[in-house]
Predict the structure.
Amino acid sequence: MIRLLIFAILILALGYGFSWLADRPGDLSLVWEGQLYQTKLIVAAAILIALVAAVMILWWFVRLIWTSPHSVTRYFRARKRDRGYQALSTGLIAAGAGNALLARKMAARTRGLIRADQEPLINLLEAQAALIEGKHDEARQKFELMANDPETRELGLRGLYLEAKRLGAHEAARQYAEKAADQAPYLPWAAQATLEYRSQAGRWDDAIKLLDQQKVAHVVDKTTANRQRAVLLTARADDKLESDPAGARDDALSALKLVADFVPAALIAAKALFREDKVRKAASILEQVWKTHPHPEIGRAYVRARSGDSVTDRLKRAERLEAIRPNNVEALLLTAKAAMDAGDFGKARAKAEAAARIDAREGAFLLLADIEEAETGDQGRVRHWMAQALRAPRDPAWVADGFVSEKWLPLSPVTGRLDAFEWKAPFGQIEGPVEEGSTVSVDAALKSLPPMREAAPATTTEAQNSPKVASPTADTYVMELEPATAKPAPSAAAATPQQPSEQRPFFGGAPDDPGVKDRRLEPEPKTRLKLF
């Protein structure tokens, strides 16, 4: 485009020059060797321009002849290189598609057209073809060649790292990842792998230092870096909680500054402060986290802040948390548990039922079963709530990669991933058609709650006219009989035949506890023919 513009400007300049000379006619005289040459000015200008053009054409022709051998060589070399790159591109596409035969063929063709020292991607193509064919030893050799080349060092180290991971050689994989992270800290895979390896080894200081380098190199964004740093600080605080409570407190508080609602950091900070007898400050931290993220472990730590508190004091602390987050499931369950421990079963039952109405999950029904057991001891009603708990969704827990843990961990025990644990339900409900009776309803459970069983009075009847045996003497045994009393005459009501009682279901027992089948309560089979 620029050349075309320059050519147009040049043509316009020549045209303008010739028009200017045509408007100003004149003669040009030249005396050379006694001869006088005279011509028009415009003709002389045209001859001069033609002479310059002829010289330029002649120079181009001479230069073309002089450089023709080199030009011909360069043309064929470029054509050969283009064919080589075309074969390399086809081979890489074939390797990505899993066509090992075509990839091998294109790799051999590429080596014949391009030298391997000029194009390091040939080693990559051969390594990919070897991996497809299952020749891992050959692939590792190619990756080692690439790792020794400055242009492909990062690619070779990644290939060696993946091969070590495949073989389960975690120590070799760690070395490759750390080498790549030291030489190129901007590589996300190397930095993340090295961070996880150092965390698995408990080298929290080295892991935090590497994370700071990643943040400076903009490998991770600020939010992710702060989150991972909070996780590492919390893990370090957990390790030093027993030996250095003050250091654990400082690390946990630093983690809370990065992530304000990080529950594990708040728990460790509170435990460290409890050991330093700073109950008020620990309670303040737990309350702040409870406002944004009500968690059952936060609630339990807050309620049991002082070991010498009575059950009534713990109930008051639970009610305080409920006042901070009213109509919250965790707050209601916490208050219900504290009320049950305090013996206030009415309040405990009301709070547990309210929690179950908000979120009908397993823990709410199990708590109702515990309340029923503690208050009435009616096993039928207890089993009723247990049956509801079996059908209800599970309670949230610390879950990472399908693994459920009783407490928070900084790394996943399955994959070793950092900050993998989440507070959620372990297993989701299977989607599908909702059948009748498959869902849990608190109101329906309350309606179907069996009535409270009354304690059967222990009736002991003494047989009248029973003989009394006197204490034996040395010689004889004397048996004394009580005088027989006259039996009263049967009344009219007693004389009338007794009406058969209505047959009770479940063999006379409660619906939740059928018991043993009583033959006496069964009606006699009705037959047409009776012999007696």
Observations:
- The mean pLDDT is 82.
- The longest strand covers residues 27-32.
- The two ends are 126 Å apart (CA to CA).
